[in-house]
Amino acid sequence: MNDPMLALRDLLDGQLRDHGRRLRGFTDPDWQRYADLLAGAFLLAVRRRFAPGPDQARVIRFVATARERYDPTGVTLDPAFAEELVRAALLDDPPPVVDAVPVDEAVLVDGAVPVSTGALVTAQSLLLLALLEDEGTSADGNAELLSAAGRLVRPSGPARSCGADRVAEDWSIRPPAPGGS
Predict the structure, then answer these.
(1) Quick one: pLDDT band at residue 16, thresholds 50, 70, 90?
(2) Residue 173 DSSP SS3
(3) Which of 40, 138, 142, 161 fits a disulfide with 152 by CB distance 3.0 to 4.6 angstroms?
(4) What are the boundaries of each domain within the chain?
(5) What is the distance between the alpha carbons of residues 108 and 62, in angstroms, rounded to a whole number?
(6) Cα torsion at 22, 96, 84, 87 (round to 10°)?
(7) What are the residues whose beta carbons fall under 8 Å from the beta carbon of 134, sequence distance 6 or more?
(8) First to last CA, the chain
(9) CA distances, 99 to each of 35, 102, 152, 172 (Å)
(10) DSSP for 52-119?
């Protein structure tokens, strides 16, 4: 079965062989669902970790430690891009727009910086792994996070990931109900 939720859970639980096997069987809608679930989990994890507001130093330190752990060569995770993703999730600024393009095609970030869909998924994946590792999240905690992300992500809709400020209309994610997650 190539369920995007199961693939993402495999990644978060360190089951990389199962994760890769599921990804290889993905169709285009599976990839979009995976990207939407990842975006939802990333948004929830960032907001759980950081208080709202422009604490640039904490974001910079977090990205630096994530790069040390998951990108020792320094080429996979661009620090400016990673910091932008975290700040966007915190401040409701629009993160990079990714409109269902093939992984190798570049799209524009803030109208000027080219980034591929693959770069966005990679950055969100590495940052999410670092956030959960820092929290010491258990397998049950990962499952709870993905369940919450699944409740945020519409089962169908436009294949886009845009600003956290336009979550319901552009990220294919519904904002949580007041007082709920």
Answers:
(1) confident
(2) strand
(3) 40
(4) 4-166
(5) 25
(6) -90
(7) 49, 62
(8) 28
(9) 11, 9, 19, 12
(10) SS--HHHHHHHHHHHHHHH-TTSSSS-HHHHHHHHHHHHH------EES--TTSEEEETTTEEEEHHH
Measured distance CA(19)–CA(21) in Å, rounded? 5
Q: What six digits make up the tokens of 137? A: 């999240």
- Residue 26 burial class via C-beta count within 10 angstroms: exposed 0-12, middle 13-18, buried 19 and up: middle
* β partners of residue 99: 160
User: Which pLDDT score is estimated for 67?
Assistant: 93
Q: How far, in Å, CA of 105 to CA of 147, rounded?
A: 30
Burial of 173 (0-12, 13-18, 19+ CB in 10 A): buried
- Work out the pLDDT band at 90, boundaries 50, 70, 90: confident
